């Protein structure tokens, strides 16, 4: 049908489909089709029957927290921007999907773009913004095309643009194509890029809601968050909060990948135990060892802790995060040291280089893990890994840096035996690291399973 998604996006059954429910049913290239499925009812209600303050109150009552990683209460941010006395205010939909493995925002943009656009116009109305920008990754051509079509149709039909639905609200809509590294999705880096500068984070305060793009109060909101905004205005705050936990309400888009039966995109109630989430994705393909939850700044949750609820606070308490909404499943054939190395190397490469402890520190962390992997550690390398991880985090300019060492610290704590086997004996317990250059370093491997030896 018109409106197929990019082949890499596979939507899984199970969980609770709200944002995903119309994907595959609604024609993403047609406003009429979106409206037939109840689209723009939330916006209509907002601008014709509610004041901006009422809208903010509904979002507060729903308990919506940002889906872009931080879990910050959406209404609190909107209230700050609303109260700012400024001629110009701006709202930005963040669809930079800085973690390329996360599929949620892309699925929404390709499969039901009006849902995001509707949420963005509601946000603009609530905070009093006259400009609304959809910032989307340049390497998602289909998403860009469909968002552009949606914006054109919405503007032509007076759902956006001048005099929204015959009211005195006007919101100029545009799509901005962005490129760049992982850090380019961080909101102050995105604001810098939108203003024409390099996409590097800025020191806060001032917070963007007070002083953001071109000095104007700016609300940056994740694409999925905005889709929830449209859903809440159409269905009510109570309906939104009918699933989830007290502190983490509603549903969340989660991308499950790795050693799992059915990798793909789920929508689950927040608070779903990790074990159930794994089950919805077809279960582990081998003996599950750990789940890396939250993307490059996330952490490893070991298989013994899979009763942990997937929500903002429980994950953070366990050293992981919701982050990009991705979950990497590993099994007994996955090396935890090498996987942690993959993430810290990603963070080092994708950092912008503005903060020295981040630029240098993440590289030194990669080198330290490399020495351990090659069985050539220096005497204090384990202490160095922990100390440097903390220092990089404590001196952080942005959250990339603050969270960068999560995969290292959680694997060191939970899979220290794998680090020690690599460092002291040149053995990969998972039997996964088979780098031929490491061969000369290997000591006699008494008592070690043959499959676990470096080959
Ligand atoms: C390294 C890094 C990358 C980020 N990438 C994204 C991203 O791709 N999309 C996104 O919405 N938020 C991303 N964020 C979070 C944003 O800074 C910001 O918190 C978010 O856009 C606010 O929207 P929300 O409250 O709706 O989540 C990133 C943060 C960091 C530190």
- CATH 4th-level superfamily of the largest domain: NADH-ubiquinone oxidoreductase 51kDa subunit
Bound molecules: flavin mononucleotide
Please write the string of helix (H) and strand (E) elements: HHHHEHHEHEHEHHEEEHEEEHEHHHHHH
Radius of gyration: 23 Å
Q: State the CATH class of the largest domain.
A: Alpha Beta
Pairing-aware structural class of the strands and helices?
Answer: alpha/beta
How many helical elements? 18
- Which CATH architecture of the largest domain would you pick? 3-Layer(aba) Sandwich
Shape: globular
Mean pLDDT: 93
CATH topology label of the largest domain: Rossmann fold
* Strands ordered across the widest β-sheet: 6-5-11-8-9
- The percent range for strand residues is 5-15%
How many domains make up the 3D coordinates?
3
Low-confidence stretches: 436-455
| Largest sheet report | 5 strands, mixed
Helical content class = 40-55%
Number of DSSP strand runs: 11
């Amino acid at each position: 049908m018109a409106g197929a998604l990019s082949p890499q996006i596979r939507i899984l059954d199970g969980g609770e489909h709200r944002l995903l429910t119309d994907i595959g049913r609604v024609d993403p290239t047609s406003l009429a089709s979106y409206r037939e499925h109840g689209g723009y009812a939330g916006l209509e209600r907002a601008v014709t029957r509610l004041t901006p303050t009422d809208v903010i109150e509904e979002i507060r009552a729903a308990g919506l927290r940002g889906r872009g990683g931080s879990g910050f209460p959406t209404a609190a941010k909107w209230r700050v921007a609303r109260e700012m006395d400024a001629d110009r205010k701006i709202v930005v939909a963040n669809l930079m999907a800085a973690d390329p493995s996360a599929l949620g925002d892309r699925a929404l943009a390709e499969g039901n773009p009006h849902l995001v656009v509707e949420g963005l116009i509601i946000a603009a109305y609530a905070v009093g913004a006259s400009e609304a920008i959809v910032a989307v990754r340049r390497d998602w051509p289909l998403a860009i095309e469909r968002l552009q079509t949606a914006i054109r149709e919405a503007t032509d039909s007076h759902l956006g643009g001048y005099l929204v639905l015959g009211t005195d609200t006007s919101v100029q809509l545009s799509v901005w194509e962005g490129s760049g590294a992982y850090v380019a999705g961080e909101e102050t880096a995105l604001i810098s890029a939108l203003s024409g500068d390099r996409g590097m984070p800025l020191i806060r305060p001032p917070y963007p809601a007070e002083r953001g793009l071109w000095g104007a109060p700016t609300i940056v909101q994740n694409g999925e968050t905005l889709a929830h905004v449209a859903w809440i205005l159409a269905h009510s705050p109570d309906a939104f909060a009918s699933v989830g936990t007290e502190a983490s309400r509603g549903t969340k888009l989660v991308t499950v990948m790795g050693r799992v039966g059915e990798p793909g995109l789920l929508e689950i109630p927040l608070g779903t135990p990790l074990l159930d989430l794994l089950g919805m994705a077809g279960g582990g393909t081998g003996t599950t060892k750990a789940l890396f939850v939250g993307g490059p700044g996330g952490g490893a949750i070991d298989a013994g802790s899979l009763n942990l609820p997937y929500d903002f606070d429980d994950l953070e308490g366990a050293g992981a995060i919701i982050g990009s909404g991705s979950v990497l499943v590993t099994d007994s054939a996955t090396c935890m040291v090498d996987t942690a190395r993959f993430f810290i190397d990603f963070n080092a490469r994708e950092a912008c280089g503005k903060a020295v402890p981040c630029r240098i520190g993440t590289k030194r962390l990669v080198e330290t893990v490399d020495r351990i992997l090659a069985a050539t550690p220096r005497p204090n390398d384990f202490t160095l890994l922990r100390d440097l991880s903390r220092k990089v985090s404590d001196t952080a300019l942005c959250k990339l840096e603050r969270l960068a060492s999560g995969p290292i610290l959680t694997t060191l704590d939970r899979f220290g035996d794998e680090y020690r086997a690599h460092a002291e004996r040149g053995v990969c317990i998972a039997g996964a690291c088979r780098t031929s250059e490491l061969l000369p370093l290997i000591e006699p491997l008494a008592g070690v399973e043959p499959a676990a030896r470096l080959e």
